[in-house]
Amino acid sequence: MGEIDLYTAPRLQSELTRILDESAPAFMVIDMSGVEFCDSTGMNVLLSAHKRLRERDGVLEMAAPRPAVRKILQVTGLDSVFTIHEAVPEGLPAAEPQV
């Protein structure tokens, strides 16, 4: 399990930027099942990627957030910003992180 926080968020930011720049997806689902904790820095990285995709008429969604992350999304109101799936939708191509 991992955390998205002040120390790990820059790696996530770099990886999301690389994916958005190189493959320019119109649709992205981030599998949050392995994330135990996400602080405001991590949420800002996810929001930034969400904004970049929306500017291109794309969509960024989250899947399978663990209870602690789901609570953060609810408390901050971000559960109304992101579409959140209970599980990773089947049939989606997977991108392997290069972190």
UniProtKB/TrEMBL annotation:
CDD domains (alphabetical): STAS_anti-anti-sigma_factors
Gene3D superfamilies given in the database record: STAS domain
Residue ranges of every copy of the STAS domain listed in the record: 1-95
Signal peptide, first to last residue: none
Superkingdom of origin organism: Bacteria
InterPro entries: Anti-sigma_ant (IPR003658), STAS_dom (IPR002645), STAS_dom_sf (IPR036513)
Family statement: Belongs to the anti-sigma-factor antagonist family.
PANTHER family the UniProt entry points to: ANTI-SIGMA FACTOR ANTAGONIST TM_1081-RELATED (PTHR33495:SF2), ANTI-SIGMA FACTOR ANTAGONIST TM_1081-RELATED-RELATED (PTHR33495)
NCBIfam families: ant_ant_sig
Name this protein carries in UniProt: Anti-sigma factor antagonist
Source species taxonomy: Bacteria, Bacillati, Actinomycetota, Actinomycetes, Streptosporangiales
Gene designation per UniProt: bldG_1
